[in-house]
Write a structure and sequence with these properties.
This protein has 4 helices and 6 strands; from the N terminus they run H-H-H-E-E-H-E-E-E-E. The protein has 165 residues and is of the alpha+beta class. Helix 2 runs antiparallel to helix 3 and helix 3 runs antiparallel to helix 4.
Length: 165
């Protein structure tokens, strides 16, 4: 009994040491989440329905339950996507495209608010369709909030670039 208690205390001490000395900082957590989300939303090849659903579920879990995405569409105003269900469905729609599409983040700038519970990330998103020589680049702002030690995206909006004015 004493031996088991000693092992439990020792394992707890090792876990605490590892957590305190090797925890990932907030900027790295946010950057990793953004890169993972973009990779999961990219479509490199035909995927099974199960794989598409799994990717969409994972991406939607990166967002707060009531997250809002507002995307400016050329000549069509803004498209608004609200909540995890609509985000999930949008990822499935993107994945169902006939042509593969590669998404890549460029120049991610992260600003964490003084209380370390809110953050914003501004980035360029490069979009390339398979076989296309042309690459589209869009500017986005992602707002984050920390929920139970996890950064979740609360809103996304497109930013106007000088070329779009």
């Amino acid at each position: 009994m004493i031996k088991k208690l000693f092992v439990l205390v020792l394992l707890s001490a090792v876990a605490l040491f590892v957590f305190q000395n090797f925890k990932v900082d907030d900027r790295t957590q946010i950057r990793t989440k953004l890169n993972s989300m973009v990779d999961l939303a990219s479509v490199y090849r035909a995927m099974s329905v199960l794989e598409v659903g799994s990717r969409a579920q994972t991406v939607s879990e990166y967002f707060a339950p009531k997250a809002v995405i507002e995307i400016a569409q050329a000549g069509a105003g803004k498209r608004r996507i609200e909540g995890r269900k609509e985000i999930h469905d949008s990822v499935i729609t993107l994945s169902a495209r006939t042509k593969p599409i590669e998404l890549r983040l460029l120049d991610v700038k992260i600003n964490i608010a003084p209380g370390k519970t809110h953050a914003a990330a501004e980035t360029s998103l490069q979009v390339r369709e398979a076989g296309a020589e042309h690459v589209d680049v869009f500017e986005f702002k992602f707002n984050f909030e920390k929920f139970d030690k996890e950064w979740l995206i609360t809103s996304v909006e497109t930013l106007e670039t000088p070329n779009q004015k």
